[in-house]
Structure formats: C-alpha cells, structure tokens
Specification:
Blueprint (H helix, E strand, L loop, with lengths): L11 E7 L5 H12 L4 E3 L8 E8 L6 H5 L3 E9 L1 E3 L8 E4 L6 H8 L4 E5 L8 E2 L2 E2 H6 L9 E14 L2 E8 L5 H11 L4 E11 L2 E2 L6 H5 L3 H5 L2 E2 L10 E4 L1 H8 L4 E2 L5 E7 L2 E8 L4 E12 L3
Enzyme class: isomerase
Keywords: Isomerase, tRNA processing
EC number: 5.4.99.25
Length: 301
C-alpha cells in the first residue's frame, strides 16, 4: 500500500501551458501534486476548450494572484463562420446555421469597430452569477436571463489568417473580455454567425506562454529538475516599482506597520532583510502602507 502524500510548503509561481480538455482547477491540482505543494491557486480560469498560459501560485505567492486577475491578456482564436453553438465554442450544440457571403476585405473592415472600448453582453455559459447561481447552471436548464452589458477594452485585434469560412484572430484585451462573445459580435456585424473552434492564451500581463511548461514535461522530470521551473513569488509583481527598506523599517513593514519613504505614490513591491516583504502602497504623504505581507520568502529581484 502506497504511503500517504506528504504535502510541504512551496512558495513560487509556475507558468503552466494548460492543455485543451482540462479544467483550470484540474490542471492546478495536477501541478500541486508534482511539487507536493500544500497550498495553491490559479490567476483566473481558462475554459476546458482553451489551452495556453495559466500562471499558478503556490504558498505565499497566492497572496498576489488577485493582482494578475486584472492584467491584460492575449489570445489566438480560431473562428468558424456559418455555425452557431449554444456555448459559443466547439464544446456546445449547434443551434443555427447561416450562409457565409463575405470576403477577407469585408472581414478585415468589420474588425475596426471592435477595437478600443466596447460593451459586451456576457454569455449565458459563463461563471457569472444570478441570484447566487452560476449562469452556466441556468443555461444547462434551458433558462436564459437578462445580462447587463459590460465595458471592456480591446487593445489589439489582428486578423492573422483567413481560409474560406475560417479565420484566426489575435486579441489583446482587458479583464472580463469574452472571446466567444467577441467572435459572435464580429459575425453578427457581417450578417452571419460563428463560434470558436480553438482558443489559446499566449500572454497574461508581461508573462508569456513561451516561458511555460506543460504537465507532460513536468511528469518526465525529476523532482529537482521540476523545481527549476518555479519562479519567485514576486514574479507576479514585476510591473511594479521596487522599494528597499533598511532593517528597522523592514521589520516594521513586515509586522504590518506603515513606514515613511521617499517614493512616488502608488503600489510597489517591497524588499528588506534580503527578501521579499510584500506588496505596499505609498500615499501622497510618503507613507508606505502594507497591503499584503509575506513571510520568509526569498527575493528574485
């Protein structure tokens, strides 16, 4: 009989290249087992259909996962025009077929109104809740409820390829953007319908899938080799300026007390005593307020 799994404290960030057909939570649990990490979380879900970058946080790094939820994200999306599904992607049932009578030039022109600030109505097959119930649960019961349009920003929308009734788009967008909805809105503007056949997330903020590892790759490595894929917890904070505190100030900050600094107002990553202390915010008076404090974490800066 095999012994019980021994979980241990692991502090770090893993850039995972999630495969298709797996939920984000299943991918997280598989990665946790590889590292025997006692505590873990992800920085925003990817649909089972989608593959690509899923940053995972272990231990003290989970304190910063919320900061990456608000980051811009980049996707490569494959669309099939002429077929609409109830979920907006290839996992759903076909509910409508329509002719495709536009060409590449019309398609390229239809992208322009979707760039910049737009409003989207969230899909029924989403994790948003109505009266405490996820919309996807209602959708599976055949219930459709009114949803309020939300403001999102499409920073970049590129047409990468066109082949008959299919195309590939690259989208860099703000938090809360639904690529399935974007695909349906694009098709609607062309008098057509569409759904996603594939979706791959290639970037989250400054993090890129080119630096990620797959579960299969981790499975083939020794425990020591796997550890080389773990990044320091402050990986998620690299877009913020750094403040380094002397010993006394570092101890005060580490115990949750504000300290005076000569720095511009705003959020920052804070170091002292040769380690990461946490996330802070400098106010207009030059007072550095602790926002999230970590314990005993080595710095990567």
């Amino acid at each position: 009989m095999a012994g019980r799994k021994v979980w241990r404290r692991v502090d770090g960030v893993l850039l995972l290249d999630k495969p298709t057909g797996m939920t984000s939570n299943s991918a997280l649990q598989a990665a946790r087992r590889f590292f025997s990490a006692a505590k873990g979380g992800h920085t925003g879900t990817l649909d089972p259909l989608a593959s690509g970058l899923l940053p995972l946080c272990f231990g003290e790094a989970t304190k910063f996962s919320v900061d990456l939820l608000a980051a811009d994200k980049t996707y490569d999306a494959d669309l099939l025009f002429g077929v609409q599904t109830d979920t907006g992607d290839a996992d759903g049932m076909v509910v409508r077929r329509c002719p495709v009578d536009f060409g590449p030039a019309e398609l390229a022109a239809a992208l322009e109104p979707l760039r910049g600030g737009i409003r989207q109505i969230p899909p029924m097959y989403s994790a948003l809740k109505k009266d405490g119930k996820p919309l996807y649960d209602l959708a599976r019961q055949g219930i459709e409820v009114e949803r309020v349009a939300r403001a999102v920003t499409i920073h970049e929308l590129l047409l990468l390829d066109v082949a008959g009734d299919r195309c590939r788009l690259r989208v860099t967008c703000s938090k809360g953007t639904y690529i399935r909805t974007l695909a349906e809105d694009l098709a609607s503007s062309l008098g057509c319908c569409a759904h996603l056949t594939a979706l791959r997330r290639t970037a989250v903020g400054a993090l890129n899938v080119a630096d990620a590892v797959t579960l299969d790759q981790l499975a083939a490595l020794s425990e020591e080799a796997r550890g080389q894929w773990l990044r320091a917890p402050d990986t998620l904070l690299q877009s913020l300026p750094a403040i380094y505190l002397a010993d006394d100030a570092a101890r005060r900050f580490a115990h949750g007390n504000p300290v005076s600094v000569a720095a511009a107002p705003g959020q920052c990553r804070v170091y002292g005593e040769q380690r990461l202390l946490g996330l802070g915010e400098v106010d207009a008076a030059g007072s550095l307020q602790p926002r999230r404090v970590v314990g005993g974490v080595a710095a990567d800066a």
